[in-house]
Amino acid sequence: MATSKNKLILSMPYSKEGLWRDFISRPKYFRYNKGKRSYYELNAYLFVGLSNAKELSLLVKRNFYQLEDAINNPNYRHYQIAKKKSGFRDIYEPNKQLKAIQGRINFYLQAYYALIKPVEVNGFTINPKKYGRKCNILLNAEQHVNKKSLLNIDLKDFFPSITAQRVRTVFISSLFDFNEEIATALALLVTYQGKLTTGAPSSPIVSNFICFDLDQQLKSYCDERDITYSRYADDLSFSTNDTITEDTILDIVSIINRNDFRINEKKLRLRPWYRRQVVTGITVNEKPNVDRKLLKKIRAMLHDLKMNGLESAVCKHFGVSANEIPDELFDRFLNRLFGYINFVGQIRGVEDPMHVRFLKEFKHINSIQCHRGKTQINNTSAQIERINEENYLKALTEISNNGFTKKNWLINNFELYKQTLNWPKNLPPINRSNLIKGTLSERFNSTYKELLSEFEYDLNNENQTLKIKRPKS
Questions:
Q1: Which helix (H) or strand (E) holds 92?
Q2: Which of 2-11, 371-380, 464-473 has the highest mean pLDDT?
Q3: pTM for the whole thing?
């Protein structure tokens, strides 16, 4: 490894000997499959066995010079998103090439972390079934149910506080035992402007390795005092059936500071059993439950949607006027409401009466169709409050003017689209016979047939399905 004008120059190895290359030369063992993580041990072994830059380039599926360019010329897009209460969060999104490299690094780091993960950690990690334990916010909260005292601590500026030097130190440590060249290259690949960024796919798992010593030290301290400890990302929770004293809090803060983290004093909370105790957004006083404020918010959003329509509900929820609503806000509102309802189902159970009622009402109002655990929202239908012939003509025009994506959506959802539209009683339904007989208005027929003319569709053939016309070669 060499440096020139603040650039890292990787050394090209020529030796092809070694156990790592013996494995890498067999494609059936070298797996990168997000859908099937059956080879945790082997993937972890391949990663920690890296010894030179050529092996790293093979691991991330980039040639030697592409890897060197990604290290020395990282390309990120910077933008901001509003925080929940106040202020903005800086997002640094890597370009496509760098994101792919970071994604592969994340894959192998996840495989390794799954083998050494402390049981106290419940965030930023995969859930391998073979190890018999899942990790999510519910399991993180269940450890603290029905405790006398609960202490919540939030780490301040979690990702930005992790510097590239700290990342490099971890890669050189006994956890990985990489040489300086590999450790430096990896640290530069997963950091930007000398720190971890929010937006890089590798940042969460790297932060877990950075916190490895912190988790071990806090666990040892808490075990000696019969305190339950858990961590979800930057949220640290401590609970006990005794009283958490001021000295205990100071000891915990001292351990955090020794590991080069700082606490967010505004979010430090000590809650006794008779006050509302919350862990990662879940109330844990007697059992895991959803905050009442969220339940009231869901009821209000559903009521507003039902009584006043989508446009009015979006205006009220986001605080915008009717003339300033961008199209994406409609989908964001529906997705957010559906996410709230799913969260209630996750915490209280999918068969909970409140979750069932919320979901049934949401489906009825917005024509939501759920397939195989995923939700497909009829976007065009959801944007039309009062369906009538004029609105549908406008929707058809929008579909026909927006290229292949909208046309492809129409192909896949044609029958669903017809079924979910609630036509006024004085208008005939859209069906094959009415189109052929000309029952609908001339303007409607001409627009609808013009759209269908772009597809291979025969109105007289009831078994015919929509297929996009192939361009003539």
A1: strand 88-94
A2: 2-11
A3: 0.70
